[in-house]
Design a protein that fits this description.
This protein is of the alpha/beta class and 441 residues long.
């Protein structure tokens, strides 16, 4: 019997160093789980706001110039805390109105991690995040029968939970811990979130290579509930990954986020050279991409956020490492952030008596244009309304026009461009404006 295993899409310094493909990339494998790596001793998260890159240094300015021969600026590494992420993406606070439904977001992860909640509290109460007098949101955990501990996936679980809590602490947050990282076990966890939890948004920071082995009718049947939004990482090795490539998932890619508080424009994003992108070999182009995508196949990502190795986020994970404060990168950062953003939009809609947004475009993802998408389709609105109206697009999204995805993988090189591009999709959201706009669907 062939058992297919799924790769997570986050990595710390040690995983970048030990990658077999290149110094940054991840390997998407189908035969075995990537063995856990020992996280080296790292400096603790600063007790004050991390120092930004000075805008007036010649080195910085020269490095930031993007040219045809150097489209990806080489910059010093920055580390971001939770408050900075919320500020730089303009994340609003939308509480639950009395008597209205509370949005439920489910994080699908492999294996079990018993220290998850206490690690979240350490992360949350650090003075660089929300302070010792604050309490993290309640997180509920359902562990599928037979799940055991895995150190590598424990870091992934802490990352996913801490990002979702940071962006939308007002949500009803659940973690579903799959028995293992096999496709069957992860999909069983998805089914639990679909049917038992009745989740509104699902976050999935894992995947495997697009192709008939994974992207088949049976596997895609788990992503067909039109009351839900499925958010999936696009991957970390310039390949096209499933389930992100499914017509019924929002594929979340990666950027490098640059913070320059002393500059007139305090934030800039450009491509992350390793983020998963490109054209599917199995899924045809859905009609929501027909104006931007002249290829016969679905392309990813749809949107992108912070994931690059020079714009790291600090998380707290005490799973046997010498220092529990771990700076991480990868599209495992961007996907839970975007899933939480969708949950904010949903909460605003629930407060007004509206339905949840859905990423489900078709009941038959491999033949998506044979059915009519629902009226609350997020993809339809992204591509056919926001992207095609310049004023709306400029208000809702940060257009990423610098760089390309040059670092390895099997995809060709894709350049950032004005508007939609294969490297970064539509761009990264200005969350307050984006969520306000999504009330109109």
């Amino acid at each position: 019997m062939i058992i297919n295993f799924i790769e997570m899409y986050s990595f710390s310094s040690s995983k970048r160093k030990n990658s077999m493909k290149n110094i940054f990339g991840e390997i998407l494998i189908q035969s075995s789980v990537v063995p856990p790596k020992t996280v080296p001793l790292l400096k603790p998260i600063p007790n004050s706001t991390p120092v930004s890159i000075p805008i007036d240094t010649n080195t910085y300015l020269n490095n930031f110039v993007a040219t045809p021969t150097n489209p990806n600026p080489s910059l010093p590494t920055q580390y971001f805390n939770g408050i900075q992420l919320k500020t730089l993406y303009n994340v609003p606070n939308i509480p639950v109105v009395a008597g209205k439904k509370q949005v439920l977001i489910a994080i699908i992860i492999a294996y079990s991690y018993p220290n998850l909640i206490q690690d979240l509290k350490k992360y949350w109460q650090n003075c660089s995040n929300f302070g010792s007098n604050s309490n993290p949101p309640t997180v509920n955990v359902h562990t599928m029968s037979g799940a055991t501990f895995n150190a590598g996936w424990a870091v992934e679980e802490c990352l996913d939970v801490q990002m979702v809590c940071t962006i939308n602490p007002n949500a009803n947050i659940w973690v579903v811990e799959a028995k293992s990282s096999s496709t069957a076990d992860l999909l069983a966890a998805v089914q639990y979130a679909n049917i038992t939890l009745q989740a509104d948004v699902l976050s999935m920071s894992w995947g495997g290579n697009d192709g008939p082995f994974l992207s088949n009718t049976v596997n895609n049947s788990y992503f067909t509930d039109a009351s839900k939004c499925y958010c999936a990482s696009s991957g970390d090795s310039n390949t096209v990954s499933w389930p992100a490539v499914s017509t019924n998932c929002i594929a979340v890619g990666g950027t490098t986020l640059l913070w320059t508080p002393n500059a007139p424009n305090q934030r800039t994003e450009f491509t992350w050279v390793n983020a998963g992108s490109g054209y599917s070999i199995t899924f045809p182009t859905p009609s929501y991409q027909s104006q931007q995508n002249t290829n016969a196949k679905r392309c990813i990502p749809d949107i992108s956020l912070i994931a690059g190795v020079s714009s790291l986020v600090y998380i707290y994970c005490s799973c046997g490492t010498n220092n529990p404060w771990i700076p991480v990168s990868g599209t495992s950062v961007s996907s839970p952030i975007f899933a939480a953003i969708v949950s904010i939009a949903d909460q605003g809609r629930f407060n007004q008596g509206k339905s949840a947004l859905t990423s489900v475009y078709s009941k038959t993802p491999l033949t998506p244009n044979t059915s009519i998408p629902p009226s609350n389709s997020l993809q339809n609105y992204l591509y056919k309304t926001i992207l095609t109206h310049p004023s709306e697009y400029s208000a809702d999204f940060n257009d990423i026009t610098i760089g390309n995805d040059t670092a390895g993988g099997s995809s060709p090189i894709y350049n950032a461009a004005t508007g939609f591009d294969v490297a970064t999709g539509i761009g990264s959201p200005n969350v307050a404006a984006f969520c306000a706009d999504l009330l109109n669907i």
